[in-house]
Every structure is written in structure tokens, then in C-alpha cells.
Design goal:
Blueprint lengths: L2 H13 L6 E2 H8 L4 H11 L8 E2 L10 H10 L4 E2 L2 E2 L1 H4 L16
Helix pairs in contact: 1-2, 2-3
Organism: Amycolatopsis plumensis
Keywords: DNA damage
Pfam families: DNA_binding_1
């Protein structure tokens, strides 16, 4: 992995605001990373100083080994989970300029 991509992933994760979440896939797409797993690897190796708790799996759940700490941190920011799943339609971060993909409240 090149350093430019690594730093781009870090910058995007750092820009996810409190009270919102993003998926590993969201971050990968924004950064131009080849896969969401690369985002996870960057967080695991070099994410201690980032808001790592705001990054979830595609189904809105934390990684099993992080579930309790991650959901507690999210709850402190106002992000509530139903069981162990965060409603991505409600809490997903929409970077500036990104439009809704469908009518609000449809589901």
C-alpha cells in the first residue's frame, strides 16, 4: 500500500463527524482504496488516534471483538443501536455534496 492512499484513508476517517457513522466500504470508495478490508487493516495498524468507533461493517454492526466499546462510544455521541446494529439510513455520514439516493422515509 502506498503512503498517499494510507494518509487519504486516515484523513477521511478523521473527517467523519461525531453523531454519524460510515462503513469500511464508504471509506474505501471515498479514498479510492481497492477494498474495505484495506480500511480495516489501516485502522487496526494505525487507527488508535482516529475516531475508529464511527466505522462499521456494511450491515451496520461493529466487529465482534469491538462491539461493546464501539457501541458505548457511539451511544455517547448520540448514535443509538438496535441491539448491536446501527441504522445506517439514520446515522450514515453523507459527505458534503453527496445527495440522498432515494425518498426519505421510504423504509
Amino acid at each position: 500500500m502506498d503512503d498517499v492512499l494510507h494518509e487519504r484513508v486516515r484523513e477521511i476517517i478523521e473527517s467523519v463527524p461525531a453523531g454519524t457513522v460510515a462503513t469500511y466500504g464508504d471509506i474505501a470508495a471515498l479514498a479510492g482504496a481497492p477494498s474495505p478490508r484495506m480500511v480495516g487493516a489501516i485502522l487496526a495498524e494505525d487507527g488508535h488516534d482516529l475516531p475508529w468507533h464511527r466505522i462499521l461493517r456494511a450491515n451496520g454492526t461493529p466487529a465482534p471483538h469491538l462491539v461493546h466499546d464501539q457501541l458505548e462510544r457511539l451511544r455517547a455521541e448520540g448514535v443509538l443501536a438496535d441491539g448491536q446494529r446501527v441504522d445506517l439510513r439514520k446515522y450514515r455520514w453523507k459527505p458534503d455534496g453527496e445527495e440522498e439516493t432515494g425518498p426519505e422515509g421510504l423504509f
